[in-house]
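To: structure desk
From: M.T.
Subject: fold request, one chain
Message: Could you run this one when you get a chance? Sequence is below, nothing fancy, just the single chain.
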Amino acid sequence: MMRYLKKIRVGAVCLALLTVAAVGVRHNYAQADGLQNLQELEPEPALSAPVMLPVTGVAGQKATLPLHENKPYMLHLWATWCLPCREELPKLAALLKAHPDLPIVPVALDSGSAEQVVAALPRLHAVGLPVWVAEREHVQPFIKTVKDPGLPMTLLIDASGQVRAISDGGVTWDEAQAASIIRNLLQETE
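Reply: Done. Structure tokens follow.
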């Protein structure tokens, strides 16, 4: 009898774990399906003080965003462990490969060192993506306007360094006119 009860208990625990996993996967796929069109990123009045974000690159290279003064850019926050990021990242990598002049700065949060992020890129199908890492606490001041900040997140930053639009969730980097939409958005914020 004890053996039978043990089997039932183990089965119940396994079923509970599978249910939790299925709910998590379903939630992440729902988020990935809800990607925001780039055209929906509409510049608003400044949402933050100028962004001054310390980042670290490969081989310990240190920099502070913005990388180029007086130029608008897009800051894309993501993480290696983030399932919606994994859906979106290959599309961003392909866009940047096709248009290396686009000022999009991908920054990994809570993902380890830049070398660890580079090592994860093949499994994420994002080889060649520029790699910068930052600490989450350095990002918090710039995303105060987002109720429940999550990853991925894209911030449109104007020429004076202020956040002008935030996509709290994934973006459709593979839109047919993505590069021209991004250029237009950046031009609006100069």
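Reply (cont.): The first helix runs from residue 2 to 33. Let me know if you need anything else for the meeting.
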